[in-house]
Amino acid sequence: MDDLKKVENLFDYNLKVKKLLSDIVPNPTDFYSDYDTFNYIEDLKDSLSKIETYINKMMLDYKIPHSVLISFNNQMKQLKRKVKSWSFKRITKQGYTATLDFISSNITYMRPEFVEAIYENFAAFHGCNENQVLKPITINEYSHFVHSYVINNETFYSSVPIVSSVKNDSKWKEVNLRGRESELGNQLYVAILNSSIESDRLEIINLDKKIIIMAKDLGHAAIIEIELTDKDKIFVKYFIPKNTSMEKMSLLKGIYTNKKGFATGSFQTTKDKIITDVCTLMQGIPTDKDIDLSKFRRAL
């Protein structure tokens, strides 16, 4: 399998897992009759098997730590056994709320402290310190671990074929457009080259339905994911692993986590505005130059 196909598979599998995780959340209508509940259980079994396959493929393609791979497969084995057991059928007999609690606690929930540990320990150029991350306990947490581990790994970007590259320019040290050529991807690449973004290295991976940007020196190494749809809507989410100015960070479009250690955000835009919105976002991300040195001076 070539590297570009492997990248496309990663996001395809990740999207399929998200869809399956959403679909297996029960509805009250799944408990109107024994027939409805039986169908729900059968669909759940089928969905868990598919999720297991997709997450395993992602883990094996990107050499996720063996301990995590083993732990995931052991957990899936136990979960599938539970769903086939009489104890789970007794849970479903209790109705919607009891079943929803089971699905949440075993499959779909993500602990805030787990997410925060991922943000604090996975960052490009610093490496992914999985030993400092809480052990995943739900399927959704395993999925989030895999996605975060891969896109914060520098080798993930360097493995994707280059479409166009600028190096050793008077303004830029390195800007790489990778993946596939497209009108939007090329426009974004040119706009970034012509902008005042303060980054020593920029990696842009352009795929059919997704664009990923890794920008060194912007909050250490900001990761921006752009999700394209068949309609005019475009979704942008970003992770900034180093917060050198909470004040400046608060001005970013879509900011929703603004902590001393890291920041995250997301927003919706359109094809007409995406180039401007992304360049403005990147220009606004604080760098080491934005660190407030006054508190250190006062300490002297």
Number of strands: 10
Distance linking N and C termini: 57 Å
Q: What does the largest sheet look like?
A: 8 strands, mixed
- Category from helices, strands and their pairing: alpha+beta
- How many helix segments? 12
What does the average pLDDT come to?
A: 91
- Spell the H/E element sequence: HHHHHHEEHHEEHEEEEHEEHH
Percent range of helical residues: 40-55%
Spatial arrangement of strands, main beta sheet = 3-4-5-6-7-8-10-9
Whole-angstrom Rg = 21 Å
The poorly predicted ranges are 293-300
Shape: elongated
Our estimate of the beta-strand percent is 15-25%
Description:
With 300 residues, this protein is of the alpha+beta class. Helix content is 50%, strand content 19%. It has twelve helices and ten strands. The protein has helices at 3-23, 34-61, 66-84, 86-93, 96-108, 112-121, 139-151, 154-158, 183-193, 246-249, 274-284, 294-299; strands at 122-123, 127-128, 162-167, 174-179, 201-206, 210-216, 221-228, 233-240, 255-258, 263-270. Strands 3-4-5-6-7-8-10-9 form an eight-stranded mixed β-sheet, with helices on one face. A two-stranded antiparallel ribbon has the order 1-2. Strand 7 and strand 8 form a beta hairpin. Helix 1 runs antiparallel to helix 2, helix 2 (34-61) packs antiparallel against helix 3 (66-84) and helix 9 (183-193) packs parallel to helix 11. The chain is elongated and about 70 Å long.
